[in-house]
Write the structure tokens for this entry.
Amino acid sequence: MTLSMVHWPASWSRQQRSSATMMTAVVVLCVLLWLLALPLQQVSNPIGNNAQYFAEGARVTVQLTVISGVAGVLLGVLAALGKTSRFVPLRWVASLYIWVIRGTPLLVQVLFVFFALPSLIPVLQLTDFSSACVALALNVGAYNAEAIRSGLLAVPKGQVEAARSLGLSRWFTFVDITFPQAFKIALPPLVNNIVALLKDSSLAYAIGVVELTNIGNRIQAATFQPLPILATTATIYLVLTTVLTQISNAVERRFDVEGKLQ
Amino acid sequence: MNGTTQPLITVDKVNKRFGTHHVLRDVSTHFNAGEVAVIVGASGSGKSTLLRTLNRLETHDSGRIVVDGIEVNDDQKQLDALRAEVGMVFQQFNLFPHLTVTENVMLAPRRVRKMKRDEAHHCAMELLDRVGLKAHAHKHPFALSGGQQQRVAIARALAMKPRVMLFDEPTSALDPEMVKEVLDVMKQLAKSGMTMLVVTHEMGFAREVGDRILFFDQGRIACDAPPEKFFGAQDNPRIRAFLGQIVH
């Protein structure tokens, strides 16, 4: 689903096309979330009369994904740096985090943050939405960490040597040389994680967040018409992941200086 | 030459081991400003390692190295300052693949010398013109040939206006027809008075451009002589054997 890249004028540069695709996809996503109720209203009942609820659910799902996705990428970078650090305790902390998160079910993590964390640390009595964001961010962060770490390790040693031999500090070597190259390598697995995150956000349902899956199930329970309701729910997820993939493809193209992607 | 008696680089009794392999054995020498020193020897004889200890891409186990009055040790601030004064060109070019040719050349002056973008761009174009690549300034490294990439790497190192340039087998990874274009740039650089330390197997270059030839053998400097003496009647059997293998 990368059709939109093809339709830009041939005279545009790779960067311009990539920016155009990204902008378009973001605009499409916003319009979609804002006006999702309109097309759904055209469908026969029980979809038409519940269109507003579906639209509201989709908005919450996207909010969950964007907030925990951004936080998850930042967490992933930090954890990847921790795990590749020369400072042993830091490596240990990062490994522990990744080990625990990857070794336990996401559903348990969601329930844990909402129900168990407040009894452990009373200050952390979060709302259901915030709890879901924290749990999802922690979860996707651990997977992102491994993706970014593999990217960091794949940057040739000569790159760092060249940067350091020019007098660049450790910080600029990382910011200008290592990280951009590592990020490019890590991008496909990162996109995988974010798409998985969008779908996994449905587990927020377990603590009562009124997101898309929760809405679908509520309407289904009230109308006893599982087929149209669940089909609609699934279709909205599919549309959302498709738009997300468009954005990430455009990001990938932006980094593709060698023109390997066709 | 700047007329001072102080050598630009002093190497004093430097030792280096990789595990049980003793790569540098009590190496002592010095390099003066304006001098072109060519370092030759069989692979594994320690010549690249010596070059890499000078800007601390390798640490040395014992002995002292002083470059331009700066002691080479673990002091990070001092090390960054030192590296800014010492340009290096690698066998594998090591250009930054995600940046254009111009950006490759501009990066270090902007970050380290805090040069303004316009000024850095101006300098970069001047240098790219000097190495004959102005027309390729907007390209990414992957679109250039090996020889062109190496010339960009030289321009990138020169952009820091270094006091000395280290060349670590700059033509060894090149196709034969591209060796000349890189050597020509290096000759031009030598003529301009740049202090250069060159590890190479190009004996023609060594003979023509070098002020001194240092022959490395098993971690020691076995011979340090002007080219006419080195390539002349050579009484050292190991050097004769080496030259016999290299010069066909």
